[in-house]
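W.,

You were right to be curious about this one. When I first looked at the sequence I had no strong expectations either way, so I just let the prediction run and decided to look at it fresh. Below is the sequence, 387 residues in total, followed by the output.
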Amino acid sequence: MGIQIRSSNSVVPLEASERDALNYLKNPFVSHAFLSALERSGSVGQTAGWQVCMLEIWQDNDQLVGILPAWIKLHSYGEYVFDWSWADAAMRAGIDYYPKLVVAVPFTPSMGPRFLTSADFWQQSKSEQTEWGRAIGSALDEWCQSQGLGSWHVLFADSQEHDFWRAAAGLERLDCQYYWSNQGWSTFGDFLEALQSRKRKEIRKERQQMISMGFEFEHLTGSQITARHMQVFYEFYRITYLKRSGHAGYLQPTFFTELARNLAAQVLLVFARQGSDYIAGSLFFFDRHQLYGRYWGTLEEYDGLHFECCYYQGLDFALARSLRGFDSGAQGEHKIKRGFAPRITRSFHRFLHAGLESSIRQFCDREAPAVLDWRESCRSRLPYHAV
């Protein structure tokens, strides 16, 4: 099959409606609204180290097959698939690791679509998907070589795409996150009844502590979210980043107001307040099936407030909406005892330098069993009743 790649230095090379028609899972992070908010706000771009490079995949020059949300990177910040050791090894060997092409959502370690195409594409047989993967992988190799890029990387691809990207890239890396699955519960109380008695009591005690400290929690979504709400939330986000890392965070203030304007129907904003004063907030996204925990900020640190805002309030919302799951983001071993199970995530990598490809393949082959062992260790610590 004849594959051609066309690139664009704007987030959305097609009209919004046409682009979103290719978002087969209606995932908020690859929507026109989310990616354009990143670009318009200056949260991505050449100065931010995420040079926009949307790639259109065409067949025989006249049929658009799909789009890759792609970026040219001169560093590895904001990716959450940590390849600094690979870059160091390449430098020591005299091999240029950067610039590289990354197919991902900036600052978003959440599994989702990375090849934006029609739902019909994934109804093809596995052998047909594999054939497409090999053809598109070869086209990406040629395109990267023509642009002076030594590698391309696909981060946090949705599970439906794994066979496709294995065929395209050939090198796979595993990692582990923590994910809550709804086992048919309707309320938070139903969820608690599935836990061991001691864990159930601990969670109830944690939540009661918030009430005794005078906290109330406000959920806003859709038209309830105003630009002013997002300005307040940004201040929480900015202050918290400054305290923890010494900078104001990757995301610019207008990113949040753009979300309020164009993506509020898929945003949940939770505020913690004491009386009429907002103290902290957490920002989530959701689609038809899942809740995604993303950003957090607070004026002051209170014991237990982060977990209440970012997890328990999210669970309340997910249960009320009958959502299937809650993607809580990267890291956080402390989530296990609250019922978030370990889940394997996958990234796919292709290096045009054969020696570097071979060395990194050996690294991934050694790393994978340790990741799988870690998942099993985490599973043994889940707080649910034995079945």
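Here's what jumped out at me. The first strand starts at residue 3 and ends at 8. And, maybe more interesting for your project: Residues 48 and 316 are 35 Å apart (CA to CA).

Coffee later to discuss?

I.
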